[in-house]
Structures are given as structure tokens and as C-alpha cells.
Amino acid sequence: MTRRPYVAGNWKMNLLAADALRLASDVMRKTARHRSVDIGIIPSFPYLMGIAQRLEGSSLRLGAQDADPESFGARTSAVNAEQLKSAGVGFTLVGHSERRAAFGDSDADCNAKVHAALNAGLEVMLCIGETEMQRDQNQTQSVIERQLAGGLEGVSEDQWERLSLAYEPVWAIGTGRTATPDQAEQAHAWTRSWVEQRASKRVAAAVRILYGGSVKPANAAELLAREGIDGALVGGASLEADSFAAIVAAAANSRS
Ligand code: PEP
After folding, report:
1. Is 188 a catalytic residue?
2. Of 195, 194, 193, 227, nearest to 211 (Cα)?
3. 3-state DSSP assignment of residue 212
4. Hey, which bits of 86-200 come out as E strands?
5. 83 close to 108: Cβ distance less than 8 angstroms
6. What angle (nearest 5°) sits at the alpha carbon of residue 96, between those of residues 93 and 98?
7. At 101, phi and psi to the nearest 5?
8. Is any atom of ligand 1 closer than 6 Å to the C-beta of 151?
9. Helix or strand (DSSP H, E) at 86
10. pLDDT tens-digit profile of 52-102?
11. Which of 173, 177, 209, 239 to probe ligand 1 with, by most ligand atoms within 8 A of CB?
12. Averaged pLDDT, 184-201
């Protein structure tokens, strides 16, 4: 099965409103010719509606960085999946390592968010990945499997169509250190094999697993050329339209 490459830019807590709108327009313009790639941008919450309007008629996907699992009510500061959907958002990250580390998101929290987002009609990109210490202690596979099992408990086979996974070794995020293509390929293989055992062969063949962790124009091609690496979740390099577009071009070329 050929999986469509998928490249998403996580803007994190960066940019002022006017810069975010400009970046969205620039990304739209500079990536428009890469029709073989699914492309997403993931701005901060306050910019989502404005950017959704700007993206009308474009195939660029709009994502949120998180989605609260609760329904409406007294949860000051939280934004739930239905609100995101109504604001024009198509997908949400769940379990980004910065959410896990800075806000204490557990696998159970991620699971509640996955279900709430899927039920609201959003697509979900679940992020998984080990810390440096866990890698040094040879725990990478067990950590990934624990995060997958906890985060995806109760997901039905038909819901997998709206799920993608991002393998992001924590030690490679925002550090300038990238997993070697061998390390990334191995982790993706463990992830896909877990999906095959827990969901099905069909789901495992179809699900897209992105790599994230200091992906730049200079290293994107060698990572994306690897079997089982279906795209990239990009942080720092997604804040500059030319470097993000270069990574998208590498994804397009990786399957041509
Ligand atoms: C990320 O935020 O998911 C990420 C991979 O960041 P960076 O590309 O900056 O390492």
C-alpha cells in the first residue's frame, strides 16, 4: 500500500497574530504545487479561526495543538474538540511531549482526548516517543508500546482512518539532534507492528507514522526515504515558510 506523505508544522507558542496569518498565507502559496502530500499547520488557539478563513478553498489542513476532553462547562481556559471543529479545525495533536512534560498529560488523559476529538469529528495525530534516559536504558520499544496502548485504548477499527501517529523522540525535539534514519526506521517499525497486532494488518498498512525531532531541509530527505517513515511533524523549521516548503518538497520527492 502506498501511503500519502503527510507533513505538519507545529508552531507551538510562537508568533503574533499578524505574523501567524502571514505565515499561513506563505505556506499555502509555497506548498500549493505539492499535491501528492497532505500538509498541515498547527498554530496557537487564538489564531485558528482567522487562519481557517484564510485557508478556505486551500487543501492545507488546519490543526490544533491540543483538545480538552471534556464537554462544555466550567473549565476556564480549556478549549474542547467541538469548539475546535466549529472554528474550522480539522485535526488535533494529542500527547505532544511538551504537553506530557509541562502539563502532565498522562496516557489516560491522552486517551480521553483521542476519544473526545474523534467523537467531535476531528482527525487525531497522537505523539509518542521516549526520553533520552529511556533510550539509554533500552526502553524505547516498551515506552512506545505503553503510550500506544494507553493512548489508543478503545479505538475501533473504523476510527483508525482518522488517526495518524507521530514518533518524536523527546531528546530530538527542539535540540538540533535528530534520530538517525536507522533509529527512526526501527521505532516506526515497532510502532507499525504494534498497530498490526492490536488493530489489524489492514490498519497497519494504511496508518501514517510521521517522524518528528529537529527535522530540517538538510535532513528531511534521508529520513523520509526510509521505509515506514510517512512524513514529518516539524517544529522549529515550520516557522519559516521556505524551510517548511523545502521539507514538504522532500516528502513529495520521497515517493516520486
Ligand atoms: C515538535 O514540536 O513536534 C518538533 C518536532 O519540534 P522540532 O522540529 O523543533 O524539534
Report:
1. no
2. 227
3. strand
4. 91-94, 123-128, 163-167
5. no
6. 135
7. -80, -45
8. no
9. helix 81-86
10. 999 999 999 999 999 999 999 999 999 999 999 999 999 999 999 999 999
11. 173
12. 97
Instruction: Kindly state if the Cβ of 170 falls inside 6 Å of ligand 1.
Output: no
DSSP string covering 14-38, please?
---HHHHHHHHHHHHHHHTT-TTSE
**126 CA distance to ligand 1 centroid (A)?**
14
The closest of 254, 204, 247, 209 to 228, measured between CA atoms, is: 209
CA-nearest of 20, 95, 102 to 62 is 20
From 126, 233, 244, 247, the mutation candidate for ligand 1 (largest count of ligand atoms within 8 A of CB) is 233
Backbone torsions φ then ψ of 63, nearest 5 degrees = -120, 160
Nearest alpha carbon to residue 244 among 29, 73, 98 = 29
H or E element in which residue 49 lies? helix 48-54
DSSP state of 80: B
Q: What are all long-range contacts of 13-17, with beta carbons under 8 Å and residues at least 24 apart?
A: 13/44, 14/44, 14/239, 15/43, 15/44, 15/47, 15/239, 17/46, 17/47, 17/50
Query: Average pLDDT in the 10-30 region?
Result: 98
